[in-house]
Specification:
This protein has 466 residues and is an alpha/beta fold. Helices cover 11% and strands 20% of the residues. The strands form four sheets. It has a 15-stranded mixed sheet, with no helix packed on it. The protein has a seven-stranded parallel sheet with strand order 7-9-11-13-15-17-19, with no helix packed on it. α1 packs antiparallel against α2.
Length: 466
């Protein structure tokens, strides 16, 4: 019943528009077909309140919630969100972001009845249903419908040769990503947080591509070759079901952000040499093997996360990475020593736990921003170094190693119950000036105790005290 009433109202509005257009003598009037497309777009997205949040000039007498008729032919270029060309004869932009649009996009009259459209933006609304067919909009450069509730497939894009920006993220879109070949002007493709399936299409030939984001979907198959994408700055395909190796990254000298975490990727991490603009590299939670590649020269690197893989070999040198803030290589099969941390003044989080590392903890002096330091579950030896300079340290985990000697003074800002020193064969000789702070930090009345039976720091010393 509602659909029938809606259709009759829409037909009446379009007939009124046609009469108004025929009676108009304005030389700048847009074609009747474009006027009708605008009216249809409004009618199908006005929602239960009968109006958008802002609809200035669309209707006579103020808001369309109270008005009976749409405004006269020849006024369309002044309607809120509508932009026309210089001659005021064609609609080139339709932009209604965050305007309380509810309903479906162009269910009665196709969006292609706006053939000169360059920009369409209906993002951050409550739209449902499918994305309409876009074939034929050869002038379209920007398409934004992100943060809605749209469903169904992404339509064919191959004829949109001027398309530059395509944003459909945070919807409920399904089906495959369409072919992108031939879109030589495409700069940003963002379709993350949907329900897309199938493979990532070939990206070869997209020489202007700077950002590609399909994070948090259900995509399968391999990551396509990225060679030749010399302007690529961001590639995000994490939280999918991708398989196969990470492709070569050499030559991507503008690459800033690379994330393929939470997939089923195998094989080695490719060389990162020459990626001098790389800031964040995240390949955690895959099944990657081989060694961690050299990180030297990556002076802008702030985040490096490869944890929970099957990586082997040593932790690479970190010297010169003065912007490094997060370093996570835990839950692998790494061997050898922890490298020098000297000069890493921006380091906040350092996680190398659950490996097979040996040797001592390097000097930690100068790491004034260090907040979390986890080296537990390794085979580290030697004394615990001075922690006096670590004024920002919130948590430290040293348990399940082979550390010896007396414990040093606790850093001043450790959170209560956030740290662990045992089990380790440490000397638990009482140090009245030091022990109370560690007892607060570990959450135990004696810092050498733990919740695991038989895992105290030195059972012989405990037996003696008992």
């Amino acid at each position: 019943m509602w659909t029938s009433t809606f259709s009759r109202r829409l037909l009446g509005a379009l007939l009124t528009a046609a009469v108004a257009s025929l009676s108009s003598k304005s030389e700048g009037a847009i074609p009747l077909s474009e006027r009708n497309a605008l009216i249809s777009f409004y009618q199908s997205t006005k929602g239960p309140n009968g109006a958008w949040k802002v609809d200035t000039n669309w209707c006579k007498g103020g808001s369309c919630a109270q008005a009976t008729f749409f405004n006269d032919a020849g006024t369309e270029c002044s309607w809120w969100g509508v932009t026309c060309d210089g001659n005021q004869t064609h609609v080139i932009k339709l932009e209604e972001p965050n305007n309380q649009l509810v309903g479906k996009l162009f269910p009665f009259i196709p969006i292609t009845d706006l053939p000169q459209l360059t920009t369409f933006n209906a993002s951050e609304n409550s739209l449902t249903g499918p994305i309409p067919a876009l074939a034929g909009l050869t002038n379209l450069t920007e398409f934004d419908v992100y943060n809605n509730q749209l469903s169904g497939p992404i339509p064919a894009l191959s004829s949109l040769t001027n398309l530059t920006y395509f944003y459909v993220y945070n919807n409920q879109l399904s089906g495959p990503i369409p072919a992108l070949s031939g879109l030589t002007n495409l700069t940003e493709f963002v379709a993350d947080t949907n329900k897309l399936t199938g493979p990532i299409p070939a990206l070869s030939g997209l020489a202007k591509l700077t950002s590609f984001d399909v994070y948090n979907n259900q995509l399968t198959g391999p990551i396509p070759a990225l060679s030749g994408l010399t302007k690529l700055t961001s590639f995000s395909a994490g939280s999918n079901k991708l398989t196969g190796p990470i492709p070569a990254l050499s030559g991507l000298t503008y690459l800033v952000y690379f994330n393929v975490d939470y997939n089923q990727l195998t094989g080695p991490i490719p060389s990162l040499s020459g990626l001098t603009n790389l800031t964040e590299f995240d390949v955690q939670n895959n099944t990657l093997t081989g060694s961690i590649p050299a990180l030297s020269g990556l002076t802008y690197l702030t985040t490096f996360d490869v944890h929970n893989n099957k990586l082997t070999g040593p932790v690479p040198a970190l010297s010169g990475l003065t912007n490094l803030a997060y370093f996570g290589v835990y839950r692998n099969q790494l061997t050898g020593p922890i490298p020098s941390l000297f000069g890493l003044t921006n380091l906040k989080i350092f996680y190398v736990d659950d490996n097979q590392l040996t040797g001592p903890i390097p000097a930690l002096s100068g790491l004034t921003n260090l907040t979390y330091f986890d080296v537990d579950h390794n085979q580290l030896t030697g004394p615990i170094p001075s922690l006096d300079a670590l004024g920002s340290l919130d948590s430290i985990h040293l348990e399940w190693n082979h550390f010896t000697g007396l414990i040093p003074s606790a850093p001043p800002n450790l959170a209560p119950g956030s740290s662990a020193l045992c089990p380790n064969p440490l000397d638990i000789t009482p140090q009245p000036a030091i022990d109370p702070a560690w007892e607060t930090a570990t959450g135990w009345s004696a810092w050498w105790e733990t919740s695991v039976p038989g895992s105290q720091c030195d059972l012989l010393f405990i037996d003696a005290f008992q």
